[in-house]
Amino acid sequence: MINLNSSEITTSSGSRTGNIWKITDRLTYSARISDRIQLDEFRDFEPPSDNSYLQNIISEEELLSNVELKSFVRPNIQYYNPERDEKFLSKYFDKAMEYKHTFMKNEDGSYYWVKSEIIK
Questions:
Q1: How do residues 108-118 score in pLDDT, each as one tens digit?
Q2: 1-32 pLDDT, tens per residue?
Q3: What angle do CA 47, 25, 79 make, to 5 degrees?
Q4: Secondary structure of the chain in the HEC alphabet?
């Protein structure tokens, strides 16, 4: 599992510039953010030419260029941007964590969660 977290960037006058996105190796609600391993980061805006820090962060287009899409089953979730999300999943497929979720069936036919385990 990979996770994207954004930080909004604003100018000194307070107007919104864009976001810097950090890609981490997992999303677990019990883990502290500091426990996550950062895989990459990118920006979704054109940085001002006078800001060398922002200039050094690559754009989303640069990060996802030359990504070869992997063939895998699409999860049944709502995508924000399907083409982009498939590229991210393909790029970090080997670094992503894999989880096994165990459910049990109630007498009434409904299911309940028992546990989740990291398997990779």
A1: 999 999 999 88
A2: 667 777 888 877 777 788 888 888 765 555 56
A3: 70
A4: CCEEEEEEEECCCCCEEEEEEEEECCCCCCCCHHHCCEEEEEECCCCCCCCHHHHCCCEHHHHHCCCCCCCCCCCCCCCCCHHHHHHHHHHCCCCCCCEEEEEEECCCCCEEEEEEEECC
